[in-house]
Amino acid sequence: MSMDVTFLGSGSAYPSPQRGASALVLRIDGESFLFDCGEGTQTQLMKSPLRASKISKVFISHLHGDHLFGLPGLLCTISMNLSPLPDRSPPLIDIFGPCGLRRFLRVSLQLSGSQLIFPYAVHELVPSDDQCPEEGRIDPELTREGGILLPQERPGRTLHPDPNTECFTLVDDKLILVKAFKLFHRIPSFGFSLEEKERPGRLNTELLKELGVKPGPFYGRLKNRESLTLDDGRVLTPSEVLDPPVKGRKVCVFGDCCRPVGKAYKHACEGADLLVHEATLEDGQQEKAVEHGHSTPSMAAAIAKDCGVKMLVLSHFSQRYKPEGLRREEEDEDDVTEMKRQAEGILQGSGTEVVLAQDFLTLTVNLEKRVMQ
Ligand SMILES: [Zn+2]
Ligand SMILES: [Zn+2]
């Protein structure tokens, strides 16, 4: 099963021709999950090999425009390009994000007279007061449940963190587990971790054939870790013919922040294959970065080190840092490659690789716990 991450926007504040506003797509097993949807995400999608119609879940880290303003437009375009089947309703899109997102979408779609032809549900994460300075707390009047459900809107869940782990559970199905954790930013922000469930090891079919076990239901039972009694009375245990279970891959995406809140991030991100963290400004500007609720490469690297991740991807760069290759020595003073070196300085000897995000970069996450570019 393939898994990859494509950056559609690696810039902060606003979309520019060099860096789109925040958005990335994680593809797993034919499904696409969108993390953040800044303005212009739909045109970035069109320029990429990805298909907007494959998006089945959307995760919004926080309600700042550079992570959100693209969402109503993208949903409308997906709807316009759908050709509905007369006997089947299109699949539902699940949208996760902080309280207020449900109302934002409802009002945007309603006031613009937009009608989606697919069902969607907005599941809201309830933030706490320690996720932002006092002035960043969202007026409850703005997040209050307003109006009636739109024709295609289905009731969404209101999500609270687990009292033990402090993590929010967003998705928990047969294949994956998606959690969220709290971050500190100018307004409440969240990070997400997506983890594949452990899967059974490979069945040694050559050995089974030698033992005279024919393919069929027996194979399924062994995979489900049941023992079998063969025709000659011999008992075959799963461990004799099954490789050890394969640990799933884990990808984490942090929203804007200058620090996590509590320890939930560690619980969610420990040992991740790939961790995407913002680095809006370079190390020399740490004071300014923190003042605006943002991080520097060294701050991001400290989180990656803490969680023991295999690869740290820096993203959400101030628009002054042009992508490598587009920087013109004579005009652009700010060098993004310096930011990579700053993160590497912290991670020296840890084995964690540092990568700079740029628009349309795709990273493949391999099952063998190796990440290849
Ligand atoms: Zn941002
Ligand atoms: Zn922000």
Automatic annotation (TrEMBL):
Its cofactor is Zn(2+). Keywords: Endonuclease, Hydrolase, Metal-binding, Nuclease, tRNA processing, Zinc. Pfam families: Anti-Pycsar_Apyc1 (PF23023). Gene3D superfamilies: Ribonuclease Z/Hydroxyacylglutathione hydrolase-like. One of its GO terms (molecular function) is metal ion binding. One of its GO terms (cellular component) is nucleus. Homodimer. This is Metallo-beta-lactamase domain-containing protein. It comes from Danionella cerebrum.
